[in-house]
Design goal:
314 residues, alpha/beta, Rossmann fold, 2 domains, six-stranded mixed beta sheet, four-stranded parallel beta sheet, 14 helices, 10 strands
Length: 314
């Protein structure tokens, strides 16, 4: 297994300059009652961290591949990032989304010129559909998490955190398919091994925890959570390997905890996060969290469907 290197992550950082933002790191220690910082990737173009990996990969494609077009499969945020990157690079894009995708994520991808196709409700459904369309039309696949160029792009977030909070002791990262945690952990552990990296999953979609515990990749029979961006039924192969090598600990959080974290972020921290982006805060606010401080919690996205705001915040 070849792991993404710190040099690849640093090179990715140069590629994405001017496209991905250096997002704010906000000190909320006073209101949290413990040393806690929030890394607000909700402030990225498209409202989530995904632009880092998508643009890093697509900017390296040969010109003829970009001209033919790209395709991806996504619950929403990666699809928006691919659409934004494709528009910036002059490439047509297709995004295969689940039939349950939030309207705000569908409209976000459409706004940047993507063709939207719907397929099933799981990662495997939309991946199969995307692969079929790619073969039929000659499009290049931009996978959401299981690719070294995607991982390297997401790893740029880890470099930023280390620079913005040099005293950080623990970094909490959401896990869906595992692209973000793979990149952040690879960057952090190769630059500052003393910093702990903790992956956080919804209890109803803990495919990485299940796989790591089993010692091999496992596919969950079903997944369910309000954290719609973290519903991968199985982790990527590269991501599984990176987590096994670089991540210190995996934890899960329940639905009530995620909801409480959403409300705390909105009411107390004045930050809008989607459920997938709030799982790290759910873990950080536990009375018995047991993380070494200072803690940085990655808010991975802020695409909260307006139609669900009242439901989540009530």
């Amino acid at each position: 297994m070849t792991f993404v290197t710190i040099d690849e992550i640093r090179a990715a950082r140069e590629r994405i300059k001017g496209v991905a933002r250096v997002t704010p790191l906000i000190d909320v220690s006073a209101i949290a009652g413990r040393p806690l910082w929030l890394k607000c990737e909700s402030q990225q173009p498209g409202g989530a961290f995904k632009i880092r990996g998508a643009y890093n990969m697509m900017s390296q494609l040969p010109a003829d591949e970009r001209a033919r077009g790209v395709i991806t499969y996504s619950s929403g945020n990666h699809g928006q990032a691919v659409a934004i990157s494709a528009q910036a690079l002059g490439a047509p894009s297709v995004v295969v989304m689940p039939t349950t995708a939030p309207a705000i994520k569908i409209e976000g991808a459409k706004k940047f010129g993507a063709e939207i196709v719907f397929a099933g409700t799981t990662t495997l459904h939309r991946k199969a559909k995307a692969e079929a369309i790619a073969a039929e039309r000659g499009l290049t696949m931009i996978p959401p998490f299981d690719d070294p160029r995607i991982i390297a792009g997401q790893g740029t977030l880890g470099l930023e955190i280390l620079e913005q909070c040099p005293d950080a002791a623990t970094i909490l990262v959401p896990i869906g398919g595992g692209g973000l945690v793979s990149g952040v952990a690879a960057a952090v552990k190769q630059a500052q091994p003393r910093v702990a990296v903790v992956g956080v999953e919804p209890a109803g979609a803990a495919s990485m925890r299940t796989s790591i515990d089993a010692g091999e990749i496992r596919t969950l029979a079903q997944v369910q959570s309000i954290a719609d961006g973290l519903l991968a039924v199985r982790p990527g192969e590269l991501n599984y390997a990176h987590v096994g090598r670089f991540v210190d600990r995996l934890v899960t959080v329940g639905e009530e905890e995620i909801g409480a974290a959403l409300r705390w972020l909105f009411r107390d921290a004045k930050i809008v996060a989607e459920p997938s982006g709030a799982v790290t805060v759910a873990a950080a606010l536990r009375e018995d969290a047991g993380f070494g401080g200072p803690v940085v919690a990655v808010i991975s996205g802020g695409n909260l469907d307006p139609s669900l705001v009242a439901k989540f915040l009530s």
